[in-house]
Amino acid sequence: MANPISHLVRRGLSTSAIRCDLVRTPIPMFGLSGNYAHALYSASVKSKTKDKVATDLVMLRQLLTKQKVSDYMNDPFIPTTKKLDILKEVASKGGMTDTIVNFFGVLAENHRLNLMGDITKIFDRLMCAERGEVPATVTTAQALDAKQRKEIQAALAKFVKANEKVVMTEKVDSSIMGGMIVDIGDEYTNMKYIDMSTSSKIKVYLDLIKQPV
């Protein structure tokens, strides 16, 4: 029996005219890993296994974060068949859907199992986009307190649509000295970069001072 995932992947990696058969993603996909993620997304929607596939990929992504596993999957000297056997065993023990198992086969057939880590991340990003989640990173010189966090989240909400929700990640970088740097969105969406750090203001002043009178 023909592998339906293989059929979709071949279409996903083909011309844009043929790719119209794929289910449209909530955000645009690009690059080889993006094409594979798009094909998997389309197959999971059509087979009504999208939520289960997303859960399976979370399990797989956790496994791939282990250095030994990651090194093994990315080792070009280890036969693809051995890697596929291990993935199938993981899928069987984890009760993963046939959509995932078939997808492993397609990646192995195309010698692209090394892309599995990237594909899991992109698929997760697709699911976040479906829920209307927009990533934002706020960098400050010191950790935010509860009041500051609430105020910033309220301010960030004004940058997105009514049906969207900002998912904020906090970072601490003492080199910015004070203020904050805000990144809204990512490579799949229109990014907004707002630099309100003390270090950037000092740089502006220094540049002005250096200018000839």
From TrEMBL:
HAMAP family: ATP_synth_delta_bact
Annotated family: Belongs to the ATPase delta chain family.
Organism (species): Phallusia mammillata
The UniProt record lists the keyword Membrane: yes
InterPro entries: ATP_synth_OSCP/delta_N_sf, ATPase_OSCP/dsu
Pfam families linked to this entry: OSCP (PF00213)
Top-level taxon of the source organism: Eukaryota
GO cellular component, one term: membrane
PANTHER family hit by this protein: ATP SYNTHASE DELTA CHAIN (PTHR11910)
Keywords: ATP synthesis, Hydrogen ion transport, Ion transport, Membrane, Transport
UniProt-recorded Gene Ontology molecular function terms: proton-transporting ATP synthase activity, rotational mechanism
Subcellular location as annotated: Membrane
Protein name as it appears in the record: Oligomycin sensitivity conferral protein
